[in-house]
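stage 2 :: seqdesign
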C-alpha cells in the first residue's frame, strides 16, 4: 500500500489538490491547483506564529503570498505583489483556520478512511480533533491504526 510509507512532504504537497478562495472581509485571494492539506496546515501554523509574533506570512502554491499583521484583536491581511488589503478579527481567523483544517481532514478520511494509515494524515487527524467529533470518527481512526500495525508487521 503506497500510502503507508509516503513521506510527509509527498502527502502535504502532492495529494489532495484543489482550488479555493481565502476571503477576508471584502477581499478574496484565489488559489488554483493548491495542495489543500498543506494549505490547511500552513494557515494553522501561521495563526500560531501570528499570536506569538504579531506577524506571519503564508506562502501557498497556486496563489499569492499573504502577509498577516496583528494589532490588538485586528488582523491586517495583505497580498504580496498586490494592493489587496483586508482586515478581520483575530478570533474569527483562528476559528476559520481551525474549522477548515478539521473539516478538510474529516472529509478526506470520510471518503478514503484508509488514508489514516499514513502517519502524516493520522497526525493531522489527531491535531485537527477529528477523532473527537463522534463515534464514527473514533472508529475510523481505531480501524486505521489496527490496519497500519497489520501492514507494518507483514512488511
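stage 2 :: out
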Amino acid at each position: 500500500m503506497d500510502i503507508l510509507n509516503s513521506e510527509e512532504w509527498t502527502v502535504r504537497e502532492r495529494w489532495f489538490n484543489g482550488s479555493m478562495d481565502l476571503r477576508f472581509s471584502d477581499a478574496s485571494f484565489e488559489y488554483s491547483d493548491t495542495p489543500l492539506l498543506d494549505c490547511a496546515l500552513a494557515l494553522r501554523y501561521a495563526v500560531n506564529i501570528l499570536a506569538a509574533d504579531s506577524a506571519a506570512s503564508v506562502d501557498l502554491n497556486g496563489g499569492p503570498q499573504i502577509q498577516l499583521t496583528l494589532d490588538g484583536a485586528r488582523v491586517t491581511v495583505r497580498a504580496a505583489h498586490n494592493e489587496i488589503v483586508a482586515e478581520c478579527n483575530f478570533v474569527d481567523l483562528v476559528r476559520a483556520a481551525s474549522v477548515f483544517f478539521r473539516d478538510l481532514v474529516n472529509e478526506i478520511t470520510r471518503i478514503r478512511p484508509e488514508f489514516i494509515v499514513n502517519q502524516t494524515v493520522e497526525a493531522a487527524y489527531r491535531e485537527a480533533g477529528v477523532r473527537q467529533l463522534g463515534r464514527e470518527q473514533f472508529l475510523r481512526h481505531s480501524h486505521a491504526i489496527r490496519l497500519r500495525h497489520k501492514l507494518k508487521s507483514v512488511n
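stage 3 :: structure notes
- The two ends are 10 Å apart (CA to CA).
- The CA atoms of residues 40 and 100 lie 7 Å apart.
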